[in-house]
């Protein structure tokens, strides 16, 4: 099922994730840094595909299930399921005027934009707090040969500040010095 009428929703503005700003010592328990590539895009059309879509207007929820794929520009989000919670009197998903409060994604989450990729078991986008979180046994964020592994990635969408947690293990980082060469 393809659903294109998200106009104002703009699915959290959709996210571009970049690992290029993360730097830390590989043995750190928690890494705090900037996600320089985090961007919001409200001006591009969004295409959403899934095996099924259920809209519960009274509850202000839309459930996309089965092979969910969201594309906006060069950014793609894939997941097993996506639940969109919205608010506002008189707003409906079908008219594209819903104000998104939160988006939950589950089932092998994959987020890609140009050269950046992130994978996780689940995640959520809290539009009120402007935070997005990816969680799982192994959360992997990569750009080219640079790879960051933890169990929880939290990104402040307004500032781009990111935190990668180890959840009792160790954060793993692999940096390729060649990726920093600009000339």
Describe it for me?
The chain has 183 residues and is an all-beta fold. It has one domain: Lipopolysaccharide (LPS) transport protein A like domain (lipopolysaccharide transport protein A fold, Sandwich), CATH 2.60.450. The protein is built from no helices and 14 strands. The chain has strands spanning 2-3, 15-16, 30-34, 39-40, 47-49, 52-56, 61-72, 75-87, 99-113, 116-126, 131-143, 146-156, 161-165, 172-174. It is elongated, with a radius of gyration of 17 Å.
The SSE order reads EEEEEEEEEEEEEE
CATH architectural arrangement:
Sandwich
Percent of residues in beta strands: over 45%
- Unreliably modeled segments: 1-40
Q: How many helices in DSSP terms?
A: 0
Using only C-alpha atoms, the radius of gyration works out to 17 Å
* Category by helix and strand content: mainly beta
* CATH H-tier superfamily: Lipopolysaccharide (LPS) transport protein A like domain
Distance between the termini: 46 Å
**From the structure provided, what is the oligomeric state, counting identical versus distinct chains?**
single chain
> CATH fold name, please?
lipopolysaccharide transport protein A fold
Q: How many beta-strand runs?
A: 14
* Biggest β-sheet strands, sense, barrel: 12 strands, antiparallel
InterPro entries: LPS_export_LptA, OstA-like_N
Pfam family, one: LptD_N
Keywords: Plasmid, Signal
Protein name: LptA/OstA family protein
């Amino acid at each position: 099922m393809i659903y294109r009428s998200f106009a104002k929703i703009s699915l959290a503005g959709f996210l571009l994730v970049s690992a290029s700003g993360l730097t830390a010592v590989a043995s750190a328990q928690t890494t705090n840094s900037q996600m320089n590539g985090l961007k919001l895009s409200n001006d591009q059309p969004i295409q959403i595909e899934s095996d099924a879509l259920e809209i519960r207007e009274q509850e202000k929820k839309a459930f996309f299930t089965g092979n969910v794929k969201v594309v906006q520009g060069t950014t793609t989000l894939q997941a097993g399921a996506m639940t969109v919670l919205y608010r506002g009197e008189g707003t409906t998903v079908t008219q594209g005027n819903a104000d998104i409060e939160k988006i939950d994604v589950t089932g092998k989450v994959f987020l890609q934009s140009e050269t950046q990729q992130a994978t996780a078991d689940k995640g959520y986008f809290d539009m009120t707090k402007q935070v997005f979180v990816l969680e799982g046994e192994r959360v992997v964020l990569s750009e080219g040969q640079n790879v960051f592994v933890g169990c929880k990635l939290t990104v402040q969408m307004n500032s781009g500040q990111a935190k990668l947690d180890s959840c009792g293990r160790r954060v793993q980082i692999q940096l390729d010095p060649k990726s920093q060469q600009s000339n």
